[in-house]
Amino acid sequence: MQFKSELPPVQVALDLVDLPRAINIAKEAVLGGATWVEAGTPLIKSEGMNAIRELRKNFPTLTIVADMKTMDAGSTEVEMAAKAGANVILILGVGPDSMIKDAVKAGKKYGVLVGTDLIATEDPVKRAVELEEMGVDIINIHVGLDQQVLNVDPVELVKRVSENCKKAKIAAAGGLNSETAVKAYEAGADIIIAGGTLYKSADPEQTARDIVKSLETGKPVKTDKFKKFNEDELGSAFDIVSTSNISDAMHRTGEMKGLKPVWNSERPLKFAGPAVTVRTYSGDWSKPVSAIDNCEAGNVLVIDNCSSEIACWGGLATLSCKTKGVVAVVIDGAVRDVEEILKIGIPVYARSITPTAGEPKGFGEINAVIECAGRTVEPGDWIVGDENGIIVVPKNEAMEIANRAIDVKEREDRVKEEITRGTTLAKTIRLKDWELKK
Questions:
Q1: How far apart are CA 254 and CA 250, in angstroms?
Q2: C-alpha distances in angstroms, 88 versus 2, 140, 415, 422?
Q3: Which of 82, 206, 240, 289 lies at 20 to 30 Å from 126 by C-alpha?
Q4: Structural domain for 64, as ranges
Q5: Do 274 and 206 have their domain in common?
Q6: Is residue 199 located within the same domain as residue 337?
Q7: How does pLDDT run across 227-285, given as a tens digit for each residue?
Q8: How many of the other CB atoms lie within 10 Å of CB of 5?
Q9: Where is the Orotidine 5'-phosphate decarboxylase domain (predicted)?
């Protein structure tokens, strides 16, 4: 087995749990130019060494990688993977030196390469130098899935490690796509690893081809897919996903309950923005109306009106929100002037509708922590709404949750693609295999 001298190999990381799906996706990626095929850790844990055997059977001439993430019994696990058909076995660089040294010896014994994954190392450059001295063949700079959602980029670390390690090959992994793969290559990566970019793609062949093209030309191939968003891009990120996606990303939490939209159903319903909060009392509309002046364009006004059936909100207040650029109003209470609100065109969610308004008494607070429709809302929390309902995303977790929700959507989009090819949901995800066993 030889490393390509002209271009780094593109490795498709199959971090799936179902072997038939993984093989089909790998076949498409290989048609696009991937030459290394990785049995990701989830696939190995799900399917065992049979995952490696099947990949070897389906790709007899390609390099098969086993991402074992080994922390103990390195020699034993290298032997297992090698005998199953792997050419490269990845273990963890944070493992004990004795394990790593023994794994390297086993690799030489069975004629395979041993790579170490730098994930979770406290000083990755220092550890990379130590690993190289222990004789590992590959050092994998790996920004894991749970770091990618925090918008951590592997490219700078690739550069630092490659400057300090001259014998071991450098692999780069961590959300690389056709725009960022070439940056990792220029930073010193000898192997480009693409996981979700390929296994979540509706067209892995074209996606792999775009990555290869970027490496061949030295120019990024522009893409609007498989990107991570930072704090300044949260509005764009939440526009991509549904509240269902966000709920899944938050482990089925975050939903406001019992509220219905005042909205023309013929128009798409979608909004997202940071909350301005109001606590008021039954029918008291003074603080809700005053809070409009605290809002900026893009805000969502969230009002705790004690589930009142006396309206604290109506058409004039909604019109005031439109002039300020408020994108939605959410009320745990009552609203009136429905016909006016529909004409104004700002989504207003409420618990009930009534013709009867309250009085402006002035009780309550603006921008306090409130309870609204069963959820705690702090000022600045992201409020996202659509036809499915409303989700509250805590502001301190908003970037992570947005990126996790996008990951949920991307995975679902791949399943949709497979269903449209003539199968069903249950067959695609092998539902019976994953039902709870008692």
A1: 7
A2: 12, 12, 29, 35
A3: 82
A4: 10-217
A5: no
A6: no
A7: 888 899 999 999 999 999 999 999 999 999 999 999 987 888 999 999 999 999 998 99
A8: 6
A9: 9-211
